[in-house]
Design brief:
By secondary structure, the chain is mainly beta. It contains eight helices and 25 strands.
Length: 755
Amino acid sequence: MRQKYKMIFRQCETNLIIMIHKSIKLFLILLSSMAMAQTGHLMQGVGAVNMSMGGAATAQPLDISGAMQWNPAALSVFDGSILKFDIGAFEGVPELSSSLPPGMLGQGAPGTFGKTKSELGYMPMPAIGFAWGKEDSKHTFGISAFGISGFGVDFPQETNLPVGADGNPNPNWDPNSSNAILYPQNLMGFGNLHSEYMLLQVGFTWAYNFSEKFSIGLQPTFNYASLILEPNPLAAPSQTLGYPVSESASTTGFGGQIGLFYDSLKGFKIGASYKTPQYFSEFDFKNTYLDGSSAPNVKFTMNYPAVYSIGLGYSKGIVDIALDYRYVDYEGTDGFQDSGWKIAEEGPFTGFPTGAVNGFGWQNMSVVSAGLQLKAIKKLPLRFGYTYSSNPIQDELAFFSTPATAIIAHAFQFGLSYEVSEAFRIDAVYHYGMSDGKTSGNLLSPIPAIDFNQDGFPDGPWDAVNNPLGKIPGSEVAYEMTTQMFMLGLNFNLKGKDTDGDGVKDKDDLCPEVAGLEQFNGCPDTDGDGIQDSEDKCPNEAGLAKFNGCPDTDGDGFMDSEDMCPNEAGLEQFNGCPDTDGDGVMDSQDACPNEAGPIENKGCPVIDTDGDGVPDDKDNCPNVAGSSSNYGCPVVTEAVQKEITDLARAIYFTTGKDSFTDETQIRLEGIDKILAEYTGSQFIVEGHTDSTGSDKINSELSQKRADAVMNYLIENGFPAENIEAVGYGSSKPIGDNNTSKGRQANRRVEIYTKK
């Protein structure tokens, strides 16, 4: 048993970083996305246009490459034949650092720290796409070949070593600038760490328009991947020769994508897609050790994760906006879902780490992409993009992801296009990305926590129960990076000349010199009211079809040009002006616009104060209930008239004069009290005399006496306009003038209502 442990110890001691190498190898494979920046194992975008929009294209297809990569249904917006070719140069500059606590390199040895930048340089990134479809067809087809994933790192072996080539301590060693993780394999490091990975995906796209607004898309995909790993941590390390290196290994795979796309035709768009996992056969690595001797071959399966995407788009005038959200399922993908050390299941080392890792242990991640296109400059649209990605690497597993340092949290893009002609366009983009600080965790060791050398201390940290990852206390491995990329694209539109650039070929464009809309055969609708300018009487003001494109601001059914009150809903009889109270008098002529009233009363309501059914404006007695036959005034009944007559005939005057006798006052007051209820009635006061004296004298005297009574009544409040006095002299006797009694009866005053 002791001999068994010694063998394990020698193996692990010689290859402490071999575990690191294996995880590095796995993440080197994972790092396939590094060539395209920050989205874990995924490319951020494809082609210069899509890249310049931050990779957002699920609901805003500005070019065929972005559509075929993120939402095959969106390919339906393109017609004719379009060929797109892009080539980019990508550089990732990861910086790998590590530190060891004092005593790790021997008793009394100081702690170490060092940083190393990758020296791989720029890597090519191609993209090619072709789409075609007949304008009158609901079908659009496409074929694409994209480098959708790729990576490469080249960390040179550390030269600032604690020992020299002769095995003796190096007196010039600086522990403060010594990256232990890149020590030679015989010093427990990885040595030169080099990798190259490429994933090419070919897709066959079909999009179908169910309607003008809605389409669906399907895309089967076929993949080819190649990988070089130096050293190869997937292989079991030799006790003496360390990890082997591998020849380039390749594999093929397949998958698919389905998408939905909706365009409101009013500027807003929405899209969604699901890309299945890309299922690969195994990488079959042919390995050799660094001395050129043969090493055991290994096989490894790593699939491409499923991707869920949803996007929003908005286009209006010179502005196009795109926003995408993606969810990447690493936790359910072979090669990524497992983590930790591989444990031997048979042989003399059963139950102990083999020096290999199970997988990357990545978490699912979220990606948000946003892009803005401005077309203010003719033939020179400008684009701005931003992408945010969460970090799929857990801190405790940072060691295993050492080769996969291309985890960029924030990426910024600027791009533009130049439309050389209607059929040819040049696209360009610049990308810059950076990690959100460093990803860091402990160095890990597979050496078991067993005292192999019997010095009273465990030789390694690995403990299946308490420390299953083998964390080395006080140690750290960390990485951060920046990326940049330049990409140039060529877009060939083979569908024919389009002089005004509105997407409608000149041969089909009724307005070939003016940019317009497809639904109007290329003619414009400047005000966006759905009526083309040539048929729009108000082309600069959004209006209604029934008014030939002219507006009806107040919505009353009268276009503004014919509406006397264009900002107030009104009625036809008033030429669009309102009648708020509905009395048939428009508000501008209504003295009481909020109260219904007849036109003869200027729209104000008629008031009947006394409630006699005769309105005040026609009621001569508005405050006293009367009869309509008497203009609203009370009718003098026979009984009342008799009472007035009796009182009037009892009015006495001084002989030969028009002054009242004393006893007459009470009668005058009685008459006044009665007439006060009939102020709206017309009365006549008659004066009469007997036959004594001349007719002239009698006539004058009777008039004076009638006037005296009338004036009394007026002075006491009776309306002067409703009463008059007439003297009849002795012409209307009611008694015999030959008798004293008759003459007395004839000397009288009478009061009657006018007939």
